[in-house]
Structures are given as structure tokens and as C-alpha cells.
Amino acid sequence: MQILTSILFLLFYTPIWAEYGNCVLYEAKYYLKDGSSFKGIIEVKGEGLASYLSEQGSNKYTSDQGMWQLLKEITKRNNYIYIDDGGVKPIEDYGKITFYKSMYELPIKALRKQANRNYTPVYGIVPKNDLVFIDLDEIEQIIFWEARYSKREWLTSEVVIADRDMIQTITNKRYWNALTVTFQNNVLHVQNQLMPGLQMINYNSSINNEELKRLATLKFSSFYLSQNQFQFIVDYYHLEKNNLDHQSWDNLVYSYRRRYWQKLRDWFWKRNVLIIDVWDTC
Asked: What is the pTM of this model?
């Protein structure tokens, strides 16, 4: 039971450093030692110096050398663990930093005006094919490009790793209805509004509010309450724990959590329902 408790804590743990402060996107051109190159984005959020820009849009990291320093700090603090990768990172790339070749900051448009809301939320969405996993030792040269504040309203939400069809739907269509799932004191709550929690945004006209609530209760009750959902983690613990150091194990469990979460998101998206994990607002 102690093992399972620790595992569940890691599965649903959200780092404190991501709950407060600003969010800055750093874009640079990366030249690798194998001769290849790419332009990549990393996202830094929290209360550290890297999360703030001057009026001129700069800080000590907004230069070629500054980007080297930033990546070293991210690696040293193991913050690369919490850069969303949608659970698609191969096992051989555990411990590498996740870069985004592109990020769409898209408004989620409602079919009708929502009560008490005269603005449109903006979320960060990255195509699955635009993820790059790089170890610091693989980089030969960095050319800083720009840094800017994120346009996202929900700065402490996950970045959504999506297929192209999802991005096209969000860009071109308005959603029919939405709700938020929360879990408090062993009780599942479903709220008919967008708020911190597991947001469900429905683009399927055949799913009404009651059906959306039914699907939420069906899938998320199991997601939170059934220990069987995490049996693969327990099994992996017995198989691999003795071969991994503590940090590597934490990385592995977090990655498995992302993979499981992504499978759940894919299940809902087959029904044109978008899921976004929002744990707080700034």
C-alpha cells in the first residue's frame, strides 16, 4: 500500500513552481553535433528570473549564452520532466529536454456566449510531430531568436499535445458545450463551466450536456478511483525499480502518467471532445 500511495502521488503531483508567476516562451535555433538543426521553443513558468521579461522583452537568458545557461538550469533542476510531451517520448529519450517546433495559442470559441464571460480562453497546443527530444550534450550551437510572454489565459494548464485534425477543429469550429471535472474528498464533481480541473470541451453536436456528464463520470471515476488502472505501474515497479536510481524512477512514473493521460485524451477526441488539465489560474 505504501508503494501504491507513492505512485499515486507521483501520478497526480503538479510541481509547485508551476502554480504561480508568469510564463515565457523562449525560441532559438539549435545546431546539433550530428549536423542537423531545428528551431525550437521551450516554455518556462513560475517565479524564477526566467519567467519575467523587462519592458524591452529581455532578461539575462535572452542571448546565445543566456540560452545555454537556461538549459543548464532546467537540466540541473530536472524541470525538463514537467515539460509536456503528451506521453509520446520514447523510453530512450527519458531525461532529455522537450522542445516544441511550433506552438499554437488558440482561443476556444463557444457556440453561444457564456454567462459571465465576455472574453475567450486561449490554450497552448503543440502538434505531436513537432516534438523534439534533445540532450544538452547533443547541442553544438544555440542562436537565440526571441522571448515573449505566453498568450494563454490558463498559464497553469498543461500544453495540449494534439493531432493536426484537433488543431483544425479548434481553429475553425465552435464548441457545443463544456464542463469541468474535479475530484475532492473521494467524490467526483462535474461543473457546467470552465474552471480549474479536467476541462471537457465538446465539438460533437450529438453529445448533449447529460451525455457529456455521463461520459465524464464513466471514464474519470475509473481514472481516479480504481487501483486497477495503475496496476501496470505497480508491475513495472517490481520489474524495474532495482535497476533505476530514484530520479530515473520518478521520471519514468511521470512519463507513464503522461502516456496514460494521453490515451484517455485520445479516447475522448475520437468523440470530438477535447480534454485539458487545468490545475489553477495565475
From this structure: 0.77
